[in-house]
Amino acid sequence: MGLFISLEGIDGSGKSTQARRLADRLRACGRAPVLTREPGGAPGAEDIRRLLVEGDPDRWSPETEILLFTAARRDHLERTIRPALAMGRDVITDRFADSTRVYQGATRGDLRGLVDDIHARIIGIEPDLTLILDMDPEIALTRGLARRSGEDRFEEFGLSFQHKLHAGFRALAHEAPGRCVLIDANRSADAIADDIQAVVTQRLG
Ligand code: TMP
Asked: For residue range 118-158, what is the model confidence (pLDDT) as tens digits?
């Protein structure tokens, strides 16, 4: 089996850049990683993505979001993640279930129990390693909104929401220290990439 790695963090924390850089470094070591993302990572899941990241912040309740993100994740798991791992390829995903634990489970009421129950029944796996990019919420939000990607439904919830997310990801890192590693993302992309490389190299033995 390949290694299953997720990158997590608030919007604008540099996850996507670092996911790409990690894939490049693994390729340079002769591995064949699959680089993917959530919501999305398979054609049906990408269709669901558009429903989730575009439009008004109050378009969906957190409960409805949990179901939609989980539907997208199940499709991603069936069609992309499991087949790749079974072929012995590493999978690097830009977000996975920790995003639901934090964005839906810990920001608009305590829905963590519901998230965990649905995850256990429908998804049932965790990454081998989760890299949590820890960044100042104000800087990250400015960066995220500056992109004007048309996918900023969650950024539109504002700064206090981003602070809750930031605290939520830190709490998760303490909850699952064997799987999660907190990476200081308030630094240059090169320094962050070097840290990530060191952690992944150690995991690969
Ligand atoms: P992205 O900008 O990292 O591609 O993610 C899209 C948005 O979806 C981002 O604002 C975080 C949010 N999200 C959730 O709220 N719950 C989830 O489970 C996932 C995977 C993403």
From this structure: 999 999 999 999 999 999 999 999 988 888 889 999 999 99
Q: Is the CB of 39 under 6 A from ligand 1?
A: yes
Q: What pLDDT, on a 0 to 100 scale, did the predictor assign at position 144?
A: 86
What is the span of the domain harbouring residue 91?
Answer: 4-204
What is the Å distance from ligand 1's center to 38 Cα? 7
**CATH number, position 164:** 3.40.50.300
Task: Quote the ligand 1 centre to 36 CA distance (angstroms).
Answer: 13
Q: Is 127 in the pocket of ligand 1 (CB under 6 A)?
A: no
The count of domains in the chain is 1
User: Which residues on neighbouring strands pair with residue 154, listed in sequence order?
Assistant: none
Q: Does ligand 1 have an atom closer than 6 angstroms to the CB of 123?
A: no
Per-residue pLDDT tens digits for 19-51:
999 999 999 999 999 999 999 999 999 999 999
Strand order from edge to edge, sheet including 4-9: 34-37, 91-94, 4-9, 129-134, 180-184
Total-model pTM: 0.97
107 in Cβ contact with 62 (< 8 Å): yes
